[in-house]
């Protein structure tokens, strides 16, 4: 059953809207240590922002090459998952064991060889995220590259997904849609777009 993650939340008003929505997403993501993104949140702001009741939504810390100091800094925050970019399988295994968090391993995709890297993570990670090479730029990639990834892998898909896209094309290749940039207007999360996207997900799940 197709579910979704709304990523790049950085203000309490938007977060409260999502958490209290009649049909909330399964995951909400927060950019924790990637200053190149305008969605990045300082530690002090992050600590205040996510110290709330989650209403059964999983909070995800989006982390790019996190070092030991930063992982120690956030270890007691209200996160359920760590989404790891540019982290080796060996280090991923150590992080999972030490911090007792579920893991989303993020692979950035340009070709078939990039996709095949999931095999290095599938016994460690709870979810494999297939993303574009653009990181914060929401670029796309050829989704047909995922056709041979087995259904036994819990897959998340990101990269230039639009809030009003037809969802049937995604349901064939992924379990979870990860969306951020297309939910924004002038660089800020847009409540109307979020509402439309969540309604689209709900409608799709009840039609199929």
Descriptors:
8-stranded parallel beta barrel, TIM Barrel, 7 helices, 208 residues, two-stranded antiparallel ribbon, alpha/beta
Topology:
Layout: E1 3-6, H1 12-19, E2 27-31, H2 43-49, E3 58-64, H3 68-74, E4 81-85, H4 89-99, E5 102-109, H5 112-116, E6 127-132, E7 155-157, H6 168-171, E8 176-179, E9 184-185, E10 188-189, H7 191-207
Parallel strand pairs: 1-2, 1-8, 2-3, 3-4, 4-5, 5-6, 6-7, 7-8
Antiparallel strand pairs: 9-10
Describe the structure.
The protein is an alpha/beta fold and 208 residues long. It has a single domain (3-207), classed as TIM Barrel. The chain has 7 helices and 10 strands. It starts with a strand and ends with a helix.
Short description:
Helices cover 28% and strands 22% of the residues. The protein is of the alpha/beta class. Helix 3 (68-74) links the parallel strand 3 (58-64) and strand 4.
Task: Give the N-to-C terminal Cα separation.
Answer: 9 Å
CATH architecture: Alpha-Beta Barrel
Helix and strand string, N-terminal first? EHEHEHEHEHEEHEEEH
Shape: globular
Helix amount: 25-40%
Q: Indicate how many domains the architecture comprises.
A: 1
- Helical segment count: 7
Percent strand equals: 15-25%
Q: Helix/strand/pairing class, anyone?
A: alpha/beta
Query: How many extended strands?
Result: 10
């Amino acid at each position: 059953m197709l579910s979704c993650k709304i990523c790049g939340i950085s203000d309490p008003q938007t977060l409260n809207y999502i958490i209290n929505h009649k049909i909330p997403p399964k995951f909400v993501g927060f950019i924790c240590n990637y200053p190149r993104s305008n969605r990045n949140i300082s530690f002090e702001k992050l600590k205040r922002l996510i110290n709330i009741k989650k209403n059964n939504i999983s909070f995800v810390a989006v982390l790019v090459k996190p070092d030991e100091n930063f992982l120690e800094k956030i270890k007691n925050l209200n996160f359920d998952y760590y989404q790891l970019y540019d982290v080796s399988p060996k280090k991923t295994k150590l992080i999972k064991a030490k911090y007792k968090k579920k893991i989303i391993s993020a692979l950035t995709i340009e070709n078939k060889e990039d996709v095949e890297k999931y095999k290095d993570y599938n016994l460690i990670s709870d979810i494999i995220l297939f993303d574009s090479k653009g990181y914060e730029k929401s670029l796309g990639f050829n989704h047909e590259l995922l056709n041979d990834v087995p259904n036994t892998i819990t897959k998340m898909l990101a990269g230039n997904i639009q809030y009003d896209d037809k969802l049937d094309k995604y349901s064939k290749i992924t379990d979870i849609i990860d969306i951020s940039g297309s939910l924004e207007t002038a660089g800020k999360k847009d409540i109307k777009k979020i509402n439309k996207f969540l309604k689209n997900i709900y409608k799709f799940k009840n039609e199929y």
